[in-house]
């Protein structure tokens, strides 16, 4: 992986001094690294956010999308190798939560060390599959689901040109999330803190609690009022939890 390749994938909006904790942030379906700019700003300088930009969107829109989560996890892990000189914490929302789980598995399998912490948000546990086929709908059907979840900026949904540009990535990511199949394996060794909305149509509280099955480390479940993008209304509380957890993480 060259430095230029790493720069395509990893966005450091607020580079931090030596000694800062590092938090990898993985976007939701159709999302981009810029979604985490406010998170990076809020956590800086104590925590350096490494926001991942998937291929096929924004400044990477000319690159082919990756519609297979295990493959995308392998690519993300490869990009993160230079950052593994100290433990990395991982936050992912929706599709990004499942991707974060697969990246955390690769970290353990390939390095023998655990991620510092895994923070899945707005996603059921990998071992709780659902049969979903939204990615097979026509454009209007797909957009109806996006609007229902209120996950894409309303300015994009109201701008035909921006919408046409975003649709391929949205459909790709829905396909990746909906066709993902959990492969049983060793439990993670890192702590897992799960955030979920009490009215999320994509995840029940019980499905969120099932993340506990996937770790031998400490587990916490935090339930907030709201739907799939509950984190927009509860960002300060979520960031306080993340900051407190990372403050307890040793830095190499």
From TrEMBL:
Coiled coil: none annotated. Residues 21-245 form the Thioesterase domain. One of its GO terms (molecular function) is hydrolase activity. Pfam families: Thioesterase. Keywords: Hydrolase. It comes from the Bacteria. One of its GO terms (biological process) is lipid biosynthetic process. Belongs to the thioesterase family. PANTHER family: S-ACYL FATTY ACID SYNTHASE THIOESTERASE, MEDIUM CHAIN (PTHR11487:SF0), THIOESTERASE (PTHR11487). This is Oleoyl-ACP hydrolase. It comes from Micromonospora haikouensis.
């Amino acid at each position: 992986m060259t430095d230029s390749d790493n720069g395509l994938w990893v966005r450091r909006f607020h580079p931090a001094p030596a000694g800062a904790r590092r938090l990898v942030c993985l976007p939701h379906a159709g999302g981009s690294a810029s979604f985490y700019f406010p998170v990076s700003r809020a956590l800086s300088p104590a925590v350096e956010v490494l926001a991942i930009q998937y291929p096929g969107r924004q400044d990477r829109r000319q690159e082919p999308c990756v519609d297979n989560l295990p493959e995308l996890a392998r690519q993300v892990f490869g990009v993160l190798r230079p950052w593994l000189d100290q433990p990395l914490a991982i936050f992912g929302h929706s599709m990004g939560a499942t991707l974060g789980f697969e990246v955390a598995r690769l970290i353990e399998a390939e390095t023998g060390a655990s991620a510092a912490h895994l923070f899945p948000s707005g996603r059921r546990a990998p071992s709780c599959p659902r049969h979903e086929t939204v990615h097979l709908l026509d454009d209007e059907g797909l957009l109806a689901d996006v609007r229902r979840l209120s996950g894409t900026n309303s300015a994009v949904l109201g701008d035909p040109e921006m919408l046409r540009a975003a649709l391929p990535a949205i459909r790709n990511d829905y396909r990746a999330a909906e066709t993902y199949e959990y492969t049983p394996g060793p439990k993670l060794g890192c702590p897992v803190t799960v955030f979920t909305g009490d009215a999320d149509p994509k995840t029940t509280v019980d499905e969120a609690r099932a993340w506990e099955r996937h770790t031998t480390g400490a587990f916490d479940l935090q339930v907030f009022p709201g739907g799939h993008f509950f984190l927009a209304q509860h960002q300060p509380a979520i960031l306080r939890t993340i900051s407190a957890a990372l403050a307890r993480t040793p830095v190499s």
